[in-house]
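I am still getting used to backbone structure tokens and would like to learn alongside you. To get us started, please write out a protein record for me. Once you have written the record down, we can walk along the chain together.
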Amino acid sequence: MKPPKKNKDWAKEVMDSLNMAVEMVVTRDPDLSRDSLENVYQYGPWLCLKNRGVTDAVLGEEVTAYAIEERIKDFEIEPDDTLNYSVNFLLAYLDSHVFLQIISEKKMDEIMAYIIDNYEIDI
């Protein structure tokens, strides 16, 4: 499907994807341990690929590796960031779009700012 154009549409897509990822984690782990939610960001690249209709397995691996690597770099700088599962998912999802050159880093920052201003997420 085509990527959104407006920040509010991006925000809706990203938040819908976050909700889907959390639902998948809850399905896999009904007891929902803290570790389960901390790793929900790993669904970000997969949902990006799904939403953009990317089926190339090699490209999918590259996107996933990039997005996960970006999160791990941040975790090395700020280990407590692992607790912000919502933000980590949003960043992984949007980083995947940056890697695919669908959005720029600047656009990613705009989308994140819009989400933070308009949605209740823990940051």
Remarks:
- The chain has a mean pLDDT of 90.
- The helical segments are 7-28, 34-38, 43-52, 57-77, 85-99, 105-118.
